[in-house]
Amino acid sequence: MSTKVIDTSVLPKTERRRRAPSGTATAAAVALAAAAIVPLLLGDFASFVGARIAVTAIIGLSVIVVTGYTGQLSLMPYTFVGIGVFVAAHTITGWGWPFWFAAAFAALLSVPLSVLVGLVAVRLRGFYFAIATLTFASAVGATLFEWDAFTGGQKGLSVARPVVGPIDFGGDKAYYLLCLATVLLLVWMVMGLQDSRIGRAMAAVRENETAAATLGVNVMKTKLVAFVVSGMVAAIGGVYHGMLLQSVTRTPYQTPFVEAVGVTLVILVVVGGMRSPWGPFIGAAIIYVQLEVFRTALFLQYFIAAVTAVAFVVVLLKLPDGLVGLIKHEAANVRRAPRRGGIRVAIIIALNVAVFYAIWRLSQ
Amino acid sequence: MTGTLAAQVALIGLAKSGVIAMLAVGIVLIYRTTGVVNLAHWAIGLVGVVVYVLLTGGDVVPPLLAAAVGLAVSALAGLVAQRLVFSRIHRSQVVTMILVALGVGSFFAAVSQMLLRGQRGEIIVTPFLPGGTVDVAGAVILTSELITILVAMATCAVLLPWLKRSRSGRALRAVAQNREAAQLAGIDAARYAELAWVIGSGLAALALLLLIPHSAGEQGGVLSVVHLVPLGSLLIPAFGAALVGGLISLPAALAGSLIFGLVQELLILAPPPIADEREVLAFVAITVLLLLRTERFFASNAELEALRS
């Protein structure tokens, strides 16, 4: 494995944060406006799907921190989501707390568990780390989530969507906008983390633990911080997930479902791009839009799952930066040769839309 | 009376151990020869079970033949996975390797559900082993459970000496211990890696075929949503068992299977707080095994280097 550890802290700040190339900002603004408006125009159901994508993107950010930045594979993100979900049920619905306070509280409550798991897991490398998180996911599912007072037993609990002053987030459209705003805030924070001192330590650990240690990076501390931060992000995602579903039960957070959804999450994050905080958003958007379009055709849903798994393996072998990397690559092409690059992008988009439409027509 | 009860629980535990052992042996075999931590193991076995379910659904194919076909399909799935995917990844890319294994597992789980045409809920499965119960020294267990124990024992009785003595078995071990030296000695390492995948995947299918079509006792079996997920319901204990031998030693993995099947089942008889938290105890055991880094007890440093490079 290559050891390209560059301590960017010695560079002047302007070098570190290069200005985005012209055009990128415009494109980003257009994409953002579209993301905010399109689901609202399509109605309540589309907004619900949009909110689900945004919530999955929040949870996926936890994978970015621990896997994308630090190179450790955690398969227990949904255990922390479960904590967030049930904390939301108790604090928002039960005790009448404001949702942002509940989110902060859930993040705080995830810390003891992530520290406990982290203290074991950071001593392990590679697949041992992954298996340790798998066993902890099962163990928490068999203990904490079996606790009826916490999870509401078989019946589960209900979670109310927030009302902030005059704004009622109870409807799907309003709730979607709230989730979108939150995911943007968190993407910004996770981007900032990458640029920070600890973020660079994470990158060093990811590329080569031994080399990082010789450079004076505290490897165990860095891995632990990454794991704890990812747990907090997932717990915050859990609060939003609870408010999205409005009624929650413990089953998805217990064996074998907690591992299965964890695997699915990792897959969509990698397909989207695990080195960029936008990766989960793109991965979640692609998968959930497909699943909703083909909702009536169960066979196609599993077909999509199989194709996604193949895409995942191809991305791992050929496209380490996922779809975000592909988009960046095409954008660079367009900048270099606007006409040829533009035609190429148009053809790619048209082909995708055509295939998608054809499958949709066939499934009706 | 308590003695009989203990014997009965022990036999049921042994049957569970047998299933875990067959999964664990496959995991160890594949890891040793190719360095792949096969998180797709369950899903590859599942494909065989689903083929079995489809074949027996119409009452045309005899169940035993269907089971053989299912086993062959899983073995083929393992071969394809190794040839198309895993052979292209370098062993040192550990995280990529695990992620790819998860992807392959998800793929085969999705294919299984596709083959079942998205039937949700529980699917009744015809058994291929005789129903009824047998009396073993006063303890009454299902015939299928007794056969599971015997099949697991027979598999080990054949596989261990075969690995030790036969030409192919020795070549397999040579590839595991030192890939380059084995290749210099004229052993086709890629072929033996594929052989390990075929045997391991076939064993996974065998384990699942003994488990799922007989899971509901007299009535046959139930294929439920718990089975149709990538990691299944027994893969984690199977990894725990394999970890007893550091994913390297087959005899230690078999001992581990006994612990994870038999002891866990016997703990039912323990006082309530222990009996209720049996699963949690198993997870604690796996965590301890991980922290012990058990592989160093079973392999020389040179061998560990070979596994990672």
Describe the protein in words.
The complex is a heterodimer of chains A (364) and B (309). Helix content of chain A is 75%, strand content 2%. By secondary structure, chain A is mainly α. Chain A folds into two domains: 34-319, ABC transporter involved in vitamin B12 uptake, BtuC; 321-364, no CATH class. In chain A, 47% of the residues are buried. Residues 11-16 of chain A have low confidence and may be disordered. Chain B is mostly helical and 309 residues long. Chain B has one domain. In chain B, the strands form two sheets. In chain B, strands 1-4 form a two-stranded antiparallel ribbon. In chain B, strand 2 (133-136) and strand 3 (139-142) form a beta hairpin. Chain B is globular and about 55 Å long. The interface between A and B is large, with 46 and 48 residues.
Count of discrete alpha- or pi-helical segments spanning 4 or more residues of chain A: 16
What CATH calls the topology of the largest domain in chain A is ABC transporter involved in vitamin B12 uptake, BtuC
Helix amount of chain A: over 70%
Oligomer: heterodimer
Taking the sheet with the most strands of chain A, its summary is: 2 strands, antiparallel
At CATH's second level, what is the architecture of the largest domain in chain A?
Orthogonal Bundle
Mean pLDDT of chain B: 86
Determine the structural class of chain B based on helices, strands and strand pairing. Answer: mainly alpha
* CATH class assignment of the largest domain in chain A: Mainly Alpha
Distance between the termini of chain A: 49 Å
Biggest interface in this structure? Answer: A-B, 46 and 48 residues
Whole-angstrom Rg of chain A: 21 Å
- Shape, per Cα inertia axes of chain B: globular
* SS-derived structural category of chain A: mainly alpha
Report how far the terminal alpha carbons of chain B are from each other. 56 Å
Largest sheet of chain B: 2 strands, antiparallel
Strand content of chain A: under 5%
Q: Regions of chain B with pLDDT < 50 over 5+ consecutive residues? A: none
What letter string, H or E per element, gives the SSE order of chain B?
HHHHEEEHHHHEHHHHHH
Shape of chain A: globular
